[in-house]
Every structure is written in C-alpha cells, then in structure tokens.
Hints:
This protein is of the alpha/beta class. It has helices at residues 6-13, 17-26, 43-56, 73-90, 110-120, 132-135, 140-149, 166-185, 190-215, and strands at 3-5, 32-33, 39-42, 60-67, 96-101, 124-129, 153-156. The chain has nine helices and seven strands.
Amino acid sequence: MKLYSIGEFARLLGVSVSTLRNWDKEGRLKPLRTPTGKRRYTEEMLFQALGMKRAERPKKTVLYARVSSAGQKNDLETQTEFLRQFAVSRGYGVDEVIADIGSALNDRRKGFMRLVSMVLRGELERVVIADKDRLVRFGFEFFEDLFAKYGAEIVVVHRDEKAAPAQELAEDLVRIVRHFAARLYGSRSYRARKLVRTVREALGDEANRSAEESSAEPKKAGNPKADD
Length: 228
C-alpha cells in the first residue's frame, strides 16, 4: 500500500499543509500515524480528499446552445440571448456560456465534450438548454441520468416541444443514410451516392410540399371561387 507524506499529499491535492492539519483536527480527514507520530495518507484518502475539495468549490450554472452549421451563427446568438433571459427569470447566476456549431449526431463536438468533462469533474449545478435536441438527437434520458449522478441538473426550457427545425432533422437523416450507405457499398460507390441523392430528393420534395400546404389559404365556406 502506497503511503504519502503530508507534503506529498498536499501537492497532489493542490492545498496547503496547514489545510490538511486543520482537516485532521476537525476530523474531516484523519491520516495514519507512524510510530514517531508523522502523518501518512493512503490512495483511498486521496480520493476522499478530492471529493471534499470538489464539495468546497461553488458549482456553476452553464448555458449550452447549439446550431448545425456556421451559416446559423445569428440563430446561435439569438438562442444564447434567449437562454440568458430565461436564466435571469429563474434567478440563476450564469457562470459560463458554451456555444457549439455541429450536428446533434456528432458526440465529439468541442463544446459538448467540454460540458461533459465539467459534469464528470463535479463542477456543475445545472445546464440550461432550449430543448432536448440542442444537447443530443438521441439518448437524452441517458445523459440526463448521467448528469444527475454527478449532481448536475439539465434544465430544458421547451421540454414538451419538438423544437428542432425540419431542415436540421433532414440533414441529420442524410448523415445517417450516408454513413450506412458507405458501410454497405463503400463511400465512393455509385450505389451509395445514388441512395444518398434519392433520400435528399425525397426530403426536398417533402419540405416543398409542407411549405406549400402551410402557405395555402384555407377555403372559405360559401365562397364559390374557392372551388374554381
């Protein structure tokens, strides 16, 4: 079993020797004693002390905003400002804003990785997002449970709304099809390109049809021109 002197232990924790002596006096972290009375610390005590150190730091509230492409930077600013106003209305002090650009299917997004790392280090009290899709497209409940295990709450402004734009959902579907087409036929094969093109065209037709339906004026009862 590896034992650390009080000086070594203090350096590992990033605290002073006097802090360790105070923790000993207060009964918060009792070291072992050598026959000559010197303090010695185990690795188990190191993990315990790291937890104590994290608990002493105030936890943060972070706003997380995301859009799919660089062309949506204005939307990203609007989303961030909306989250700020929501946080103020709830009385949250905002410690940091993380803004990401990338697909919700990409779990290697720079901001997302930073957010998860902060959670795993026990630094966050809450994360505020506009809707579930801003964080991840699939598996939101998994991340909600994971964050909760590390003491972080995910506050979703539009929890019951399907807020992702149709264009963004279509782009994600194309990414999924492209990925599996490449696995099946090879990324440069004609069949893979044709499948992706067919899906793009189908999604484009559906988007156009939806736009036409939403812009069409409803027929008025008793208006003979409505049936012309």
